[in-house]
Amino acid sequence: MLEGKVGVVFGLANQHSLAWHITKALAEAGANLAITYQNERFESKIKKLIAGHLQEPPPLLLPCNVLDDREIENVYREIGQRFNKLDFIVHSIAFALREDLEKDFYTTSRSGFQTAMEVSVYSLIAVARPAIPLMKEGGSIVTLTYLGSQRVVPNYNIMGVAKAALESSVRYLAYDLGKKGIRVNALSPGPVNTLSARGIKGFTGFLADVREHTPLQKNTEGSEVGDAALFLCSDLSRGITGETIFVDSGYHIKGY
Ligand code: IMJ
Description:
Elements: E1 6-10, H1 18-28, E2 32-37, H2 40-53, E3 60-63, H3 69-83, E4 88-91, H4 110-128, E5 139-144, H5 157-177, E6 182-189, H6 203-212, H7 222-233, E7 244-247
Parallel strand pairs: 1-2, 1-4, 2-3, 4-5, 5-6, 6-7
Bound molecules: ligand IMJ.
Ligand IMJ binds next to loops.
């Protein structure tokens, strides 16, 4: 499905990451990949993960802290040298201060707000802009969001506000980049037990509760998110841009 295509994945932390499930789906579909990791802390773990699971060709592995424009530029310089083009970007990055996910929303600090917005929202714009010259044949940009953008989910707090801004950014980017043949969409998975969800108070009970209330009677699996990302990165989704697609066993449709 993606033979001859080149893509980059931002936000791989470990084997539980949605970015990992997405990476596997894209690699199995024949894509040439660049994979970025936040910093040295993740490097050796990610090398092992890739060595153990991904087939040839080996991905281009690059450090990228999305708060640093020079590191982002370096990623695209390396991709340009190796592949001379880019077809898709997967952005699977979010961060808020722990305290802002534990206390009441109204206690959110100015700096906590700024951190969540910069890491979780601005980073999409920051990785999209320098990619445009490489997306010579058009392209697809995919980010990850969550229902807490539209509904109140206890403790999601500032991340809900950030995801609302992210979904809006998807629409504005889709509007601008449409004329260059670049599509921009978001996937909105149901809760998955990743590093970003673990340690959240009551998460296990929350998973069980959500499962009971979904039309499909099951929790979201990483592979389902990987396959939906594959669809959005492929030409099968060529008519879709600016959209948020739920991969949540249907949870979000229910009124009761
Ligand atoms: C996160 C917090 C509160 C409730 C939550 C989540 N629910 C779900 C998540 C119900 C599903 C996971 N999620 C969708 C996220 O986007 C998580 C983002 C996140 C998680 C952490 C934990 C560790 C930390 N900062 C974080 N920043 C963002 O220090």
